[in-house]
Amino acid sequence: MNILITGSAGFIGFHLAKNLLKKKQNNVFGIDNFNNYYSKKIKKKRNSILLKEKNFFFYKINLSKRKRIENIFKKNKFDIIFHLAGQPGVLYSFKNPKSYKINNLLATKHLCEVAAKNKVKKFIFGSSSSVYGDQKKFPISENSKKKPINYYAKTKYQCEKIVKKNFSSKEFSYQIFRFFTVYGSFGRPDMFIHKLLNSIKKNKLISLHNHGKNYRDFTYIDDVVNVLVKSVNKNFQNDILNICKSKPIKNNKLIKIISNLYGKKAKLNLIGKVKGEMLVTHGCNRLLKKNMKHKKFTSIEKGLKQTIKDFKKYNM
Ligand SMILES: NC(=O)c1ccc[n+]([C@@H]2O[C@H](COP(=O)([O-])OP(=O)(O)OC[C@H]3O[C@@H](n4cnc5c(N)ncnc54)[C@H](O)[C@@H]3O)[C@@H](O)[C@H]2O)c1
């Protein structure tokens, strides 16, 4: 099977590619432009691990350039696409909205149109829990009202619509997954867990938003990858599914667990609420469990233990 993964040098794309490459009948094609939103060193390290496999093929291209995508589709025929490339980050969307327009909206539009024109049957898109915004009722189910409160979330919701528009007809199928705060080895340095690990390592102060009272539905990367891999052989009914553990943790509690496992305390700078940030993310995973038969989620202790072990081993 020929599988295309966009954002293959990114956190989730890398772990997904690594898993799919284990099956030697799979050819995995990765696309990434190694953008500099966070350290290119990590992206290059992830890519170098993937390039060790004979069945991995990599294209360094920018998905906002339509011609470059068309050239790749001329050379290869893909059975399925995982679209995980994009501009993530909630707070950065206030600083650099243009990057979200280009790397989320434009990139997704180009990829979807070229893929549909080339009759790729299955399209899987990595969306975000942020499309729900601040909710009052928990856990948040897939049909809860969407109230995106920052530009990142708005573009992700718009991308979902682009995917639906291109892959809703009978000859195609799509699957949209809304990820909830994914963490694990080689995690993103702009996200809380790796930010905290880096600050502990360097004895630096870390700002703790909302005095550590935000809740996040931390979901371990292996659980996410497990679901994504299962979706390769599944017949979709054009679904939207949350991927979440559905057990949110207060950041203050998370810091205690991490400090204990690391063996060193974090230096915290307590600050108030931050504009555009959700106070609680707590997804419902009932549909996910039913449709994808993923019943057991990794405990936060086990997931963090592995994350910290690899953080110390690889120094990233
Ligand atoms: N990690 C999470 O907790 C989380 C939560 C919700 C949603 N998501 C979504 O899942 C997807 C993957 O997230 P991630 O954590 O792996 O992010 P990531 O930033 O680590 O990976 C994204 C990759 O896409 C690449 N990229 C960006 N724009 C590109 C372009 N125009 N052309 C080619 N490559 C481009 C980047 O270089 C990067 O390597 C993203 O779309 C993100 O919005 C992630």
Shape: globular
CATH architecture: 3-Layer(aba) Sandwich
**Helix/strand order, N-terminal first:** EHEHEHEHHEHEEHEEEHEEHEHH
CATH C-level label: Alpha Beta
- What structural class results from the helix and strand content? alpha/beta
| Mean pLDDT across residues | 97
Plain-language structure description:
The structure is a single chain. This protein is α/β, with parallel strands linked by helices and 316 residues long. The protein has a single domain, classed as NAD(P)-binding Rossmann-like Domain (Rossmann fold, 3-Layer(aba) Sandwich). It is built from 11 helices and 13 strands. The chain has a 7-stranded parallel β-sheet, sandwiched between helices. Helix 5 runs parallel beside helix 6 (151-167). It starts with a strand and ends with a helix. The mean pLDDT is 97. The structure holds nicotinamide-adenine-dinucleotide (NAD). Nicotinamide-adenine-dinucleotide (NAD) binds at residues 7, 9-13, 31-35, 43, 62-64, 84-88, 103, 107, 126, 128, 179, 181-182, 188.
List the helices and strands and how they pair.
Layout: E1 2-6, H1 11-20, E2 27-32, H2 40-51, E3 56-60, H3 66-75, E4 80-83, H4 92-95, H5 97-117, E5 122-128, H6 151-167, E6 173-179, E7 182-183, H7 192-201, E8 205-208, E9 215-216, E10 219-220, H8 221-232, E11 239-243, E12 249-250, H9 251-262, E13 267-270, H10 286-292, H11 300-314
Parallel strand pairs: 1-2, 1-4, 2-3, 4-5, 5-6, 6-11, 7-10, 8-13
Antiparallel strand pairs: 9-12
Helix pairs in contact: 1-2, 1-8, 3-5, 5-6, 7-9, 9-11
The structure holds nicotinamide-adenine-dinucleotide.
Nicotinamide-adenine-dinucleotide binds next to helix 1, strand 2, helix 5 and strand 5.
